[in-house]
Amino acid sequence: MSERISLRQLDYFVTAAEAGTLTGAARRLYVSPSAVSAGIGELEHQVGVQLLLRARAKGLTLTAAGRVFLPQAKALLTSSEELRESVQEVGRRPSGRLVIGCFTTLAPFLVPWLMEEFPLAHPAVTLDFVEGSVTTLQRLLREGRCEVTLLYGVDVEDDITFDRLYSVEPHVLLPHRHPLADHERVRLADLAGHDMVMLDVPPSRRYFSDVLATAGIAPVVRHSTQSFEVVRSLVARGTGYSLLIQRPALDISYEGRAVHTRRIADRVDPLDVGLARLAGTQPTRRAAAFASFCRTNVTRPPQAGAASLAGGTPEGSRREAASSHEGEDAGWVHA
């Protein structure tokens, strides 16, 4: 088995190539010229080609192989330095500005609570947020405009890593005087022929259409809107029914009109809510801390507001802070 190339040999070669002489490299490295020469000789022996031409009058000159090898050697030395720094980071408190993303209909239920509670656990982190559709949030991850997002596990693309937090099921939203409002549970088949108000934020429309299609229903969409509250207000006005995931604490619209929330009698595949990040990247320590915090505290649907979240008190967050360094798993390696 051949010997491995050492970082010392790479350092000698890179420094000598940049200095132009063995003496200059030795001065920078605080070793003797003979040590530099020996290290480079060992490297050349291991790779099987000459990397530097040595001439007393002209100093050191890179060979064709040396010109190819030099940038790769520099990259390896840089990677080793980054690895050293990341290991030294272990045990340090997460800090800095963390921008999270959140799906637009989830944001009112999760973001305000997170903005208040997460800083109690990690006071050195400044938390900020953006919101949007699943498509928008994945683009923001790729552009580096946010480090982690909270979204539904639908239409998640191959370059995005998704970690489930909890699952939810849709419900039927009905006007006060709708003929199905007196039913404790509503069968999807009973919605056939009734007008619908559709929440049209990707992937909501496709998901709700698929739910209805499983019961053989082609929805009669009277109005479409990207606003969660416009859906609820139109339903409250008697425009039609809707399917929604999130449920506010009060069954009234912005106008103060009543709506009725009814469970679906049919078996419906649940929808996962989770954390997403760009695959193949090393999360920062603050992003890893946020992921750990969410896995501990955001464990069920916040249907009754923040009080329904696990650890939804300042005391719960402070307890989580004591153990947060132990939860940076599932690929959320700090950097």
Helix and strand arrangement:
Elements: H1 7-19, H2 22-29, H3 33-47, E1 52-55, E2 59-62, H4 64-89, E3 96-103, H5 107-121, E4 125-132, H6 134-142, E5 148-152, E6 160-168, E7 171-175, E8 185-186, E9 195-199, H7 204-213, E10 220-225, H8 228-236, E11 242-244, E12 259-264, E13 271-278, H9 285-297, H10 314-323
Parallel strand pairs: 3-4, 3-5, 8-12, 9-10
Antiparallel strand pairs: 1-2, 5-13, 6-13, 7-11, 7-12
Helix pairs in contact: 1-2, 1-3, 1-4, 2-3, 5-10
TL;DR?
With 335 residues, the chain is an alpha/beta fold. The protein has helices spanning 7-19, 22-29, 33-47, 64-89, 107-121, 134-142, 204-213, 228-236, 285-297, 314-323; strands spanning 52-55, 59-62, 96-103, 125-132, 148-152, 160-168, 171-175, 185-186, 195-199, 220-225, 242-244, 259-264, 271-278.
Report on this structure:
With 335 residues, this protein is an alpha/beta fold. The protein folds into 3 domains: 7-81, Arc Repressor Mutant, subunit A (Orthogonal Bundle), CATH 1.10.10; 96-168 and 271-326, Periplasmic binding protein-like II (D-Maltodextrin-Binding Protein, domain 2), CATH 3.40.190; 171-264, D-Maltodextrin-Binding Protein, domain 2 (3-Layer(aba) Sandwich). The chain has 10 helices and 13 strands. The strands form 4 sheets. The chain has a 5-stranded mixed beta sheet. A 4-stranded mixed beta sheet has the order 8-12-7-11. A two-stranded antiparallel ribbon has the order 1-2. The longest helix is centred in the first third of the chain and has 26 residues, at 64-89.
